[in-house]
Amino acid sequence: MQDLKLFSGNANIALAGSVVGYLDIDLGRAEVGTFSDGECAIEISENVRGLDCFVLQSTCAPQNTHMMEMLIMIDALKRASARRITAVIPYYGYARQDRKVRPRVPITAKLCADLIQTAGADRLLCMDLHSGQIQGFFNIPVDNLYSTPLMLGAIERRIGSDVTVVSPDAGGTERARAYAKKLGANLAIIDKRREVANVAEVMNIIGDVKGQTCIIVDDMVDTAGTLCEAARSLMEEGAVAVHAAITHPVLSGPALKRISESPLNEVIVTDTIPLRPDAVDMGKLHVVSVAAPIGEAIRRINNEESVSSLF
């Protein structure tokens, strides 16, 4: 892997450090800062001519800053004659608007895809896209890794396999079914109605959860309104305990307070997004690192090997 370089913006430096540790390489040298007016200032501090370069950057909060850091770094590498540039985006932000659900709304997932390609990315590596159709927004190869194997291991170690897997909405049924199949568990679905963004009302629980230990699975937790309301409804229906396994810990606004006050026993998350400082010591959160699958995918891409067996 002598022609491999991994660079990172400021979004998730800890994860970048873990990935280069897995690959046994040094993190690429780059100056990532701001001008006095707040504009991103990027400078690649080493020669990358003819090298296979990877830019690791989750587009998490502050999303606009981290998105621009990534785009500018890709542009800098392209102008420095890198042989190939792969955008490694563990958490792909702006993904929730992936189609027109009503008139006069944007499709931001497609807009961001266009920006990444225009900046000069030759390939995309991400984890648990909000919807699989986003892969079709790109005209470059896209490798979408799944956190399911990591989460299943954490669930079996910390909770056991005698659980009922719960999808928080109809759209997540496929994901929940995959978990239930691997665990040999029952499946339940929560029928919810969302009138406005970040506000959900639980309508009905499809499936028997009485006397069961439930595990809610989803790709992201934002304000935690849906998650905590689902946990309360499951307990009201007779569940003995409720846990959650969620890939991306966005945890914005009142999320931590809601989780703390909810009947949730534990929320298992990954480090695709670094936890807020006030969440690090929160007893209900358990973090699983995605450094190994991302590092292995980078190694295989660099060696022109198949990544599909990691899915």
Task: Please provide a written account of the structure.
The chain is of the alpha/beta class and 311 residues long. Helices cover 30% and strands 28% of the residues. The strands form 3 sheets. A 7-stranded mixed β-sheet has the order 10-9-8-11-12-13-14, sandwiched between helices. A 5-stranded parallel β-sheet has the order 1-4-5-6-7, with helices on both faces. Helix 1 packs across helix 8 (291-302). The two termini are 23 Å apart.
Q: Name the helix and strand elements from N-terminus to C-terminus, one letter apiece.
A: EHEEEHEHEEHEHEEEHEHEEH
- Mean pLDDT score, rounded? 94
Strand-residue proportion: 25-35%
Tell me the span between the first and last alpha carbons.
23 Å
Distinct helical segment count:
8
Name the helicity range.
25-40%
Main beta-sheet annotation: 7 strands, mixed
What coarse outline follows from CA principal-axis ratios? globular
The parts where pLDDT drops under 50 for at least 5 residues are: none
Q: Biggest sheet, strands in spatial order?
A: 10-9-8-11-12-13-14
Let me know the number of strands.
14
Structural class based on helices, strands and sheet pairing: alpha/beta
Radius of gyration: 20 Å
